[in-house]
Amino acid sequence: MVVGIDVCHDTTRGGQSVAGFCASMNSTFTKYYSRVSFQRTGQELVDGLKMCMTEALRQFFELNQALPAIIVVFRDGVGDGMLEAVVDHEVPQMKATFQTFGETYQPRLAIIVVKKRIHTRLFAKGPQNSLENPPPGTVVDSDCVHKDWYDFFLVSQSVRQGTVTPTHYHVVYDTSKLQPDHIQMLTYKMCFLYYNWPGTIRVPAPCQYAHKIAFLVGQSLHTDPSSKLVHKLHFL
Predict the structure, then answer these.
(1) Is 181 a catalytic residue?
(2) 170 annotated active-site
(3) Do residues 172 and 159 make contact, with C-beta atoms less than 8 angstroms apart?
(4) In the prediction, which pLDDT does 45 show?
(5) CA–CA separation, 7 vs 201, rounded Å?
(6) Residues 10, 76, 90, 151: which is the catalytic one?
(7) What is the dihedral of CA 57, 59, 62, 63, to 10 degrees?
(8) SS3 assignment for 33-75
(9) Which domains, and CATH codes, for the chain?
């Protein structure tokens, strides 16, 4: 299961936070379960994560007759100063969710923080020592990354004008036993699976879906979408 989480702020309710949650329901990442959670004004950390994850796992079990063995969470909307807070606040909610399905259910879990608003730029050496944009799929996980973090930069798009902006991924929690190459490859390939665009996008598809539903509810609906729409990508 691949999960995307993002937070938007409702401008009509004094900036009340709306957390968008979107989880894949099949092995080809084409079916999704989505919902939102409301919390206090300006809050970036998600309080209703246990409720969202519990229902997503139940829906996954109904469709597949099995629970996921590995769960990868892409968490958007978090700055560098809140990385430890994410681990301390959100990881225990997920672990508590797993316990509701029995003590023997302990899936491997990876939580990856997605950062788009960065100033880092990457260049590739072109002919005659010129500089050009690196091709899509370029990964940088040494030299310019943090010495104490498990992080990497990924260029997932090709741009026609200007300098391409990479996305910075930081693995804040990992019991998945996946190799770094596998996490980087999964992250890149998930950028191809966004329905509203024929090419790649800057972030993995579930992360963008979570942003879309949180933005729709925060800017237009201001209430929970109908429960009949949880398996529909109605927010695209």
Answers:
(1) no
(2) no
(3) no
(4) 80
(5) 19
(6) 76
(7) -100
(8) EEEEEEEEECCCCCCCHHHHHHHHHHHHHHHHCCCCCEEEEEE
(9) 2-114+171-194+203-226 (3.30.420.10)
